[in-house]
Amino acid sequence: MSDLSRPSGPKIIAIANQKGGVGKTTTTINLAAALAERGQRVLVIDLDPQGNASTGLGIGLDSREFTTYELLLEDIDLNDVILKTETENLYIVPATVDLSSADLDLLSNEKRSFLLHDALRQTQMDSFGFNYILIDCPPSLNLLTVNAMIGAHSVLVPLQSEFFALEGLSQLMLTIREVRQSGNKELRIEGVVLTMYDRRNNLSQQVEQDARDNLGDLVFKTMIPRNVRVSEAPSFAMPVLAYDTQSKGAKAYRELATELLKNNELTPQEVQHV
Ligand code: ADP
Ligand code: MG
Does 6 map to a domain? Predict the structure, then answer.
Protein backbone atom coordinates (compact mmCIF):
# COMPACT_ATOMS: atom_id res chain seq x y z
CA MET A 1 0.00 0.00 0.00
CA SER A 2 1.38 3.33 -0.97
CA ASP A 3 -0.79 5.71 1.04
CA LEU A 4 1.78 7.62 3.08
CA SER A 5 -0.71 8.33 5.85
CA ARG A 6 -0.99 4.64 6.65
CA PRO A 7 2.43 3.01 6.36
CA SER A 8 1.26 -0.36 7.64
CA GLY A 9 -2.26 -0.19 9.07
CA PRO A 10 -5.50 -1.26 7.42
CA LYS A 11 -7.35 0.75 4.79
CA ILE A 12 -10.56 1.93 6.46
CA ILE A 13 -13.61 2.48 4.23
CA ALA A 14 -17.00 3.84 5.35
CA ILE A 15 -19.92 2.50 3.28
CA ALA A 16 -22.36 5.38 3.45
CA ASN A 17 -25.52 6.85 1.95
CA GLN A 18 -28.20 8.41 4.12
CA LYS A 19 -30.91 6.72 2.06
CA GLY A 20 -32.12 3.38 3.35
CA GLY A 21 -32.39 0.33 1.14
CA VAL A 22 -29.74 1.34 -1.41
CA GLY A 23 -27.43 -1.63 -0.77
CA LYS A 24 -25.02 -0.41 1.94
CA THR A 25 -25.24 -3.53 4.07
CA THR A 26 -25.31 -5.86 1.08
CA THR A 27 -22.22 -4.18 -0.33
CA THR A 28 -20.42 -4.22 3.02
CA ILE A 29 -21.02 -7.95 3.52
CA ASN A 30 -20.23 -9.06 -0.01
CA LEU A 31 -17.35 -6.74 -0.78
CA ALA A 32 -15.84 -7.83 2.56
CA ALA A 33 -16.32 -11.48 1.62
CA ALA A 34 -14.82 -10.91 -1.84
CA LEU A 35 -11.76 -9.16 -0.37
CA ALA A 36 -11.40 -11.98 2.18
CA GLU A 37 -11.57 -14.52 -0.64
CA ARG A 38 -8.61 -12.72 -2.21
CA GLY A 39 -6.60 -13.33 0.94
CA GLN A 40 -7.13 -9.93 2.55
CA ARG A 41 -7.83 -9.92 6.28
CA VAL A 42 -11.05 -7.96 6.63
CA LEU A 43 -12.96 -6.50 9.57
CA VAL A 44 -16.57 -5.32 9.23
CA ILE A 45 -17.79 -2.76 11.74
CA ASP A 46 -21.58 -2.89 12.05
CA LEU A 47 -22.47 0.71 12.79
CA ASP A 48 -26.21 0.37 12.16
CA PRO A 49 -28.48 -0.31 15.19
CA GLN A 50 -30.54 -2.58 12.92
CA GLY A 51 -27.60 -5.01 13.00
CA ASN A 52 -28.27 -6.32 9.50
CA ALA A 53 -24.60 -6.84 8.68
CA SER A 54 -24.22 -8.91 11.85
CA THR A 55 -27.23 -11.07 11.00
CA GLY A 56 -26.16 -11.38 7.37
CA LEU A 57 -22.75 -12.65 8.45
CA GLY A 58 -24.25 -15.26 10.75
CA ILE A 59 -23.77 -13.61 14.13
CA GLY A 60 -26.89 -14.48 16.16
CA LEU A 61 -28.22 -12.14 18.83
CA ASP A 62 -26.95 -14.44 21.58
CA SER A 63 -23.37 -13.98 20.31
CA ARG A 64 -23.56 -10.19 20.52
CA GLU A 65 -22.54 -9.71 24.14
CA PHE A 66 -20.04 -7.00 23.24
CA THR A 67 -20.81 -4.76 20.30
CA THR A 68 -19.93 -1.57 18.46
CA TYR A 69 -21.55 0.29 21.35
CA GLU A 70 -18.86 -0.97 23.76
CA LEU A 71 -16.16 -0.45 21.13
CA LEU A 72 -17.12 3.23 20.97
CA LEU A 73 -17.94 4.02 24.56
CA GLU A 74 -16.11 1.57 26.79
CA ASP A 75 -12.55 0.52 27.36
CA ILE A 76 -12.86 -3.00 26.04
CA ASP A 77 -10.49 -5.82 25.10
CA LEU A 78 -10.70 -6.11 21.31
CA ASN A 79 -10.55 -9.89 21.62
CA ASP A 80 -14.01 -9.72 23.20
CA VAL A 81 -15.64 -7.55 20.56
CA ILE A 82 -14.06 -8.77 17.31
CA LEU A 83 -15.81 -11.98 16.26
CA LYS A 84 -14.77 -14.49 13.62
CA THR A 85 -17.35 -15.26 10.93
CA GLU A 86 -17.84 -18.48 8.97
CA THR A 87 -15.93 -16.90 6.07
CA GLU A 88 -12.17 -17.32 6.34
CA ASN A 89 -10.29 -14.03 6.93
CA LEU A 90 -13.55 -12.19 7.69
CA TYR A 91 -14.25 -10.73 11.15
CA ILE A 92 -16.95 -8.45 12.53
CA VAL A 93 -17.76 -6.15 15.40
CA PRO A 94 -21.52 -6.75 15.67
CA ALA A 95 -24.28 -4.30 16.54
CA THR A 96 -27.57 -4.46 18.37
CA VAL A 97 -30.38 -2.01 18.87
CA ASP A 98 -28.38 -0.67 21.87
CA LEU A 99 -26.51 1.40 19.32
CA SER A 100 -29.62 3.51 18.69
CA SER A 101 -29.05 5.24 22.02
CA ALA A 102 -25.37 5.79 21.26
CA ASP A 103 -26.17 8.98 19.40
CA LEU A 104 -27.31 10.54 22.67
CA ASP A 105 -24.59 8.93 24.80
CA LEU A 106 -22.00 10.13 22.29
CA LEU A 107 -23.26 13.70 22.45
CA SER A 108 -22.21 14.11 26.07
CA ASN A 109 -18.70 12.83 25.28
CA GLU A 110 -16.20 15.53 24.39
CA LYS A 111 -14.48 13.24 21.85
CA ARG A 112 -17.84 12.34 20.37
CA SER A 113 -16.85 12.48 16.69
CA PHE A 114 -13.50 10.72 17.20
CA LEU A 115 -14.55 7.68 19.24
CA LEU A 116 -14.47 5.23 16.33
CA HIS A 117 -11.29 6.82 14.97
CA ASP A 118 -9.56 6.27 18.30
CA ALA A 119 -10.99 2.78 18.83
CA LEU A 120 -9.65 1.61 15.46
CA ARG A 121 -6.20 3.04 16.15
CA GLN A 122 -5.50 1.56 19.55
CA THR A 123 -2.30 -0.47 19.55
CA GLN A 124 -4.12 -3.75 20.26
CA MET A 125 -5.62 -3.44 16.76
CA ASP A 126 -2.20 -4.07 15.17
CA SER A 127 -2.09 -7.64 16.46
CA PHE A 128 -5.06 -8.60 14.25
CA GLY A 129 -3.21 -7.65 11.06
CA PHE A 130 -6.26 -6.44 9.15
CA ASN A 131 -5.78 -5.16 5.59
CA TYR A 132 -9.26 -3.66 5.23
CA ILE A 133 -11.89 -2.36 7.63
CA LEU A 134 -15.37 -1.78 6.13
CA ILE A 135 -17.86 0.25 8.16
CA ASP A 136 -21.57 -0.36 7.48
CA CYS A 137 -23.20 3.02 8.22
CA PRO A 138 -26.79 3.66 9.31
CA PRO A 139 -29.23 5.31 6.85
CA SER A 140 -28.64 8.78 8.25
CA LEU A 141 -25.99 11.48 8.42
CA ASN A 142 -25.98 11.35 12.23
CA LEU A 143 -23.13 11.27 14.72
CA LEU A 144 -22.52 7.57 14.05
CA THR A 145 -21.96 8.24 10.35
CA VAL A 146 -19.75 11.22 11.21
CA ASN A 147 -17.71 8.89 13.45
CA ALA A 148 -17.32 6.55 10.47
CA MET A 149 -16.17 9.38 8.20
CA ILE A 150 -13.76 10.81 10.76
CA GLY A 151 -12.36 7.33 11.37
CA ALA A 152 -12.09 6.29 7.71
CA HIS A 153 -9.62 6.91 4.90
CA SER A 154 -12.41 6.95 2.33
CA VAL A 155 -16.14 6.74 1.71
CA LEU A 156 -17.72 4.23 -0.67
CA VAL A 157 -21.22 5.22 -1.77
CA PRO A 158 -23.72 2.62 -3.01
CA LEU A 159 -26.23 4.18 -5.39
CA GLN A 160 -29.44 2.32 -6.15
CA SER A 161 -30.22 2.32 -9.86
CA GLU A 162 -33.64 3.86 -9.56
CA PHE A 163 -35.42 7.18 -9.88
CA PHE A 164 -34.16 9.89 -7.47
CA ALA A 165 -30.90 7.94 -7.01
CA LEU A 166 -28.73 11.04 -7.24
CA GLU A 167 -31.01 13.10 -5.08
CA GLY A 168 -29.42 13.40 -1.65
CA LEU A 169 -25.91 12.92 -3.01
CA SER A 170 -25.20 16.64 -2.65
CA GLN A 171 -26.10 16.44 1.03
CA LEU A 172 -23.73 13.48 1.41
CA MET A 173 -20.93 15.36 -0.38
CA LEU A 174 -21.54 18.36 1.87
CA THR A 175 -21.14 16.17 4.95
CA ILE A 176 -17.90 14.79 3.50
CA ARG A 177 -16.62 18.34 2.98
CA GLU A 178 -17.58 19.27 6.55
CA VAL A 179 -15.75 16.23 7.90
CA ARG A 180 -12.67 17.26 5.91
CA GLN A 181 -12.80 20.64 7.61
CA SER A 182 -13.54 19.35 11.08
CA GLY A 183 -11.04 16.62 11.67
CA ASN A 184 -10.24 14.37 8.70
CA LYS A 185 -8.82 16.50 5.92
CA GLU A 186 -7.49 13.46 4.04
CA LEU A 187 -10.93 11.83 3.65
CA ARG A 188 -11.29 10.59 0.08
CA ILE A 189 -14.13 9.23 -1.97
CA GLU A 190 -13.34 5.59 -2.71
CA GLY A 191 -16.04 5.51 -5.35
CA VAL A 192 -19.72 5.31 -6.14
CA VAL A 193 -21.10 1.88 -6.99
CA LEU A 194 -24.37 1.34 -8.81
CA THR A 195 -26.43 -1.36 -7.12
CA MET A 196 -29.51 -3.36 -8.14
CA TYR A 197 -28.71 -2.54 -11.75
CA ASP A 198 -31.06 -3.94 -14.36
CA ARG A 199 -29.59 -3.87 -17.84
CA ARG A 200 -33.00 -4.30 -19.53
CA ASN A 201 -34.48 -1.36 -17.67
CA ASN A 202 -34.24 2.07 -19.31
CA LEU A 203 -34.33 3.75 -15.93
CA SER A 204 -31.24 1.87 -14.72
CA GLN A 205 -29.41 2.95 -17.87
CA GLN A 206 -30.51 6.55 -17.34
CA VAL A 207 -29.28 6.55 -13.73
CA GLU A 208 -25.97 5.08 -14.86
CA GLN A 209 -25.61 7.77 -17.53
CA ASP A 210 -26.46 10.55 -15.05
CA ALA A 211 -24.02 9.19 -12.49
CA ARG A 212 -21.17 8.87 -15.01
CA ASP A 213 -21.89 12.32 -16.48
CA ASN A 214 -21.95 13.98 -13.06
CA LEU A 215 -19.38 12.00 -11.13
CA GLY A 216 -17.02 10.82 -13.87
CA ASP A 217 -14.24 8.49 -12.75
CA LEU A 218 -15.63 8.36 -9.24
CA VAL A 219 -18.16 5.80 -10.47
CA PHE A 220 -16.84 2.24 -10.35
CA LYS A 221 -16.81 0.47 -13.73
CA THR A 222 -18.30 -2.53 -11.94
CA MET A 223 -22.06 -2.43 -11.42
CA ILE A 224 -23.94 -4.78 -9.11
CA PRO A 225 -26.92 -6.35 -10.93
CA ARG A 226 -30.27 -6.90 -9.31
CA ASN A 227 -30.05 -10.60 -8.47
CA VAL A 228 -32.44 -12.62 -6.36
CA ARG A 229 -29.60 -14.74 -4.95
CA VAL A 230 -28.12 -11.57 -3.41
CA SER A 231 -31.37 -10.82 -1.58
CA GLU A 232 -31.82 -14.44 -0.44
CA ALA A 233 -28.34 -14.86 1.04
CA PRO A 234 -28.88 -12.89 4.30
CA SER A 235 -31.73 -15.16 5.39
CA PHE A 236 -29.21 -18.01 5.18
CA ALA A 237 -26.82 -15.85 7.22
CA MET A 238 -24.06 -15.88 4.63
CA PRO A 239 -22.55 -13.71 1.90
CA VAL A 240 -23.84 -14.44 -1.60
CA LEU A 241 -20.29 -15.59 -2.41
CA ALA A 242 -20.90 -18.56 -0.12
CA TYR A 243 -24.64 -18.99 -0.71
CA ASP A 244 -24.41 -19.19 -4.50
CA THR A 245 -20.81 -18.80 -5.49
CA GLN A 246 -21.47 -18.72 -9.26
CA SER A 247 -24.41 -16.30 -9.13
CA LYS A 248 -24.29 -13.01 -11.04
CA GLY A 249 -24.26 -11.16 -7.72
CA ALA A 250 -21.28 -13.10 -6.37
CA LYS A 251 -19.35 -12.51 -9.61
CA ALA A 252 -20.11 -8.79 -9.54
CA TYR A 253 -18.88 -8.38 -5.97
CA ARG A 254 -15.67 -10.26 -6.88
CA GLU A 255 -15.21 -7.85 -9.77
CA LEU A 256 -15.79 -4.87 -7.45
CA ALA A 257 -13.13 -6.20 -5.07
CA THR A 258 -10.68 -6.56 -7.95
CA GLU A 259 -11.36 -2.99 -9.10
CA LEU A 260 -10.98 -1.63 -5.57
CA LEU A 261 -7.73 -3.53 -4.96
CA LYS A 262 -6.37 -2.21 -8.25
CA ASN A 263 -7.35 1.39 -7.38
CA ASN A 264 -5.53 1.04 -4.09
CA GLU A 265 -2.28 0.14 -5.81
CA LEU A 266 -2.13 3.69 -7.21
CA THR A 267 -0.08 6.37 -5.56
CA PRO A 268 -2.06 8.89 -3.48
CA GLN A 269 -1.63 11.63 -6.10
CA GLU A 270 -3.29 9.49 -8.72
CA VAL A 271 -6.33 8.73 -6.57
CA GLN A 272 -9.04 11.21 -7.37
CA HIS A 273 -9.68 13.67 -4.56
CA VAL A 274 -12.97 15.50 -5.16
P1 ADP B 1 -29.17 -0.54 3.06
O2 ADP B 1 -28.15 -1.19 3.95
O3 ADP B 1 -28.63 0.58 2.26
O4 ADP B 1 -30.41 -0.16 3.82
P5 ADP B 1 -29.53 -3.21 1.99
O6 ADP B 1 -28.17 -3.67 1.64
O7 ADP B 1 -30.11 -3.73 3.28
O8 ADP B 1 -29.62 -1.63 1.97
O9 ADP B 1 -30.48 -3.58 0.76
C10 ADP B 1 -31.87 -3.27 0.77
C11 ADP B 1 -32.66 -4.45 0.21
O12 ADP B 1 -32.33 -4.67 -1.14
C13 ADP B 1 -32.38 -5.75 0.94
O14 ADP B 1 -33.57 -6.49 1.04
C15 ADP B 1 -31.40 -6.45 0.02
O16 ADP B 1 -31.46 -7.86 0.14
C17 ADP B 1 -31.84 -5.99 -1.35
N18 ADP B 1 -30.73 -5.95 -2.29
C19 ADP B 1 -29.56 -5.28 -2.15
N20 ADP B 1 -28.76 -5.45 -3.22
C21 ADP B 1 -29.44 -6.28 -4.07
C22 ADP B 1 -29.16 -6.83 -5.36
N23 ADP B 1 -28.01 -6.58 -5.99
N24 ADP B 1 -30.10 -7.62 -5.92
C25 ADP B 1 -31.27 -7.87 -5.29
N26 ADP B 1 -31.59 -7.39 -4.10
C27 ADP B 1 -30.70 -6.60 -3.47
MG1 MG C 1 -28.14 -1.36 6.07
Answer: no
Average pLDDT for 68-72: 96
Percent helix / strand / coil, the chain, rounded to 5:
45, 15, 40
% of residues, the chain, pLDDT over 70: 94
Q: Is 235 in the pocket of ligand 1 (CB under 6 A)?
A: no
Q: Is 24 in the pocket of ligand 1 (CB under 6 A)?
A: yes
Residue from 18, 26, 48 to probe ligand 1 pocket by mutation (most atoms less than 8 Å from CB): 26
pLDDT at 269: 44
Task: Say if 2 falls within a structural domain.
Answer: no
Q: Is 29 in the pocket of ligand 1 (CB under 6 A)?
A: no
User: How many structural domains comprise the chain?
Assistant: 1
The boundaries of the domain holding residue 184 are: 11-270
- What are the DSSP calls for 200-238, one per residue? T-HHHHHHHHHHHHHHGGGB-S---B--HHHHHGGGGTS
**Ligand nearest to the CA of residue 159, numbered in listed order:** 1
User: For residue 273, is pLDDT > 60?
Assistant: no
**pLDDT score for 270:** 46
- Looking up residue 122, the CATH number of its domain turns out to be 3.40.50.300
